[in-house]
């Protein structure tokens, strides 16, 4: 009698399927990489003679604040992404209004330690040019203020991805593109430099998408989203999506999305490119001589 063949491990037979134990090894590797990153961040604070080096200035995310509870959840998720990208960097959160912690309280809690304030705002305006610098100047901590997050290619990358996630498909044919367009919905400001920044973001997004992108505003500036939709329709652009140039959900973001005739992208949120952009603005400040400190308001 011949011995019966042992049952085959079917995991070897699936085309492209992982070999046995691969899933376990992958998850173990991710855990080890995370531990190594955190250890490296801790060790970087210790000099060769064993003395503790001064830590980097804290990164303080400055959010506007909203009565919409989703806003605070979203900003905290973005803060977690930033921490994951830069282990060992102290990351804090402060709000201009409506949510706690408020920015003055966050700065007071630093107990005089240095900090870089990164506004989670997408253009220049009153908050970036007046409110945040004045709050920083009144704080006991030594602070510097970074530029807002926009305009910047990483912001455009996020806007593009959010549109695609919402179902944006302009079509490969020239006829489909001639009928397509996007409205870039932003909060709005009476400051002309804010509108200039939003127009720059719209231009960069148009270059990325290959269709016209018209900036529109929820308040304090024109055109409104409905006006921008009508302007595109008058040009024969009837396949129009609304891109959400808002950091987090809130009243204005919801209002603009409701005006969309079809596709309305989600706010920027905790997209990985947003976390990289936050750290880029932080690093820009540290690379700038102290005598030239202040919002550089750069676009790259």
**Structural Rg:** 24 Å
The major sheet is characterized as:
4 strands, parallel
Going by helix content, strand content and strand pairing, the class is: alpha/beta
Outline = elongated
Output the strand order for the largest sheet.
2-1-3-4
- Ends: how far apart? 77 Å
Determine the number of helices (DSSP H or I, runs of at least 4 residues).
Answer: 10
What is the average of the pLDDT values? 85
Number of DSSP strand runs: 7
Helix content: 40-55%
**Order of SSEs, N→C?**
HEHEHEHEHHEHEHEHH
Low-confidence spans: 1-27, 32-45, 293-300
Strand content: 5-15%
Q: Could you characterize the architecture of this molecule?
A:
It is a single chain. Helix 7 (192-209) links the parallel strand 5 and strand 6 (213-217). It contains ten helices and seven strands. The chain is α/β, with parallel strands linked by helices and 300 residues long. The chain starts with 21 loop residues before the first helix and ends in a 14-residue tail after the last helix. Helix 2 packs across helix 10 (272-286). 43% of the residues lie in helices and 12% in strands. It has a four-stranded parallel sheet, with helices on both faces. It is elongated and about 60 Å long.
């Amino acid at each position: 009698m011949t011995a019966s063949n042992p049952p085959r491990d079917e995991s070897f037979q699936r085309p492209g399927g992982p070999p046995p134990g691969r899933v376990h090894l992958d998850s173990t590797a991710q855990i080890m990489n995370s531990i190594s990153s955190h250890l490296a961040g801790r060790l970087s604070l210790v000099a060769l003679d064993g003395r503790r080096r001064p830590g980097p200035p804290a990164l303080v995310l400055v959010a506007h604040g909203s009565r919409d509870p989703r806003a605070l959840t979203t900003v905290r998720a973005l803060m977690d992404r930033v921490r994951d990208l830069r282990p060992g960097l102290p990351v804090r959160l402060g709000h201009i209004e409506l949510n706690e912690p408020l920015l003055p309280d966050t700065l007071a809690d630093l107990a005089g330690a240095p900090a870089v304030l990164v506004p989670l705002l997408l253009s220049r305006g009153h908050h970036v040019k007046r409110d945040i610098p004045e709050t920083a100047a009144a704080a006991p901590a030594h602070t510097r203020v970074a530029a807002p997050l926009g305009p910047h290619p990483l912001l455009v990358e996020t806007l593009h991805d959010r549109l695609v996630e919402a179902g944006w498909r302009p079509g490969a044919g020239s006829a489909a593109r001639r009928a397509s367009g996007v409205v870039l919905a932003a909060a709005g400001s009476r400051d002309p430099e804010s509108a200039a920044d939003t127009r720059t973001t719209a231009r960069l997004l148009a270059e990325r998408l290959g269709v016209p992108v018209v900036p529109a505003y929820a308040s304090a500036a024109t055109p409104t989203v409905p006006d921008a939709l009508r302007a595109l329709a008058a040009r024969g652009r009837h396949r129009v999506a609304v891109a959400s140039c808002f950091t987090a959900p809130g009243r204005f973001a919801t209002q603009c999305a409701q005006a969309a005739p079809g596709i309305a992208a989600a706010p920027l949120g905790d997209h990985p490119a947003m976390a990289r952009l936050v750290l880029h603005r932080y690093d820009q400040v540290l690379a700038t001589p102290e005598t030239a400190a202040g919002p550089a308001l750069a676009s790259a």
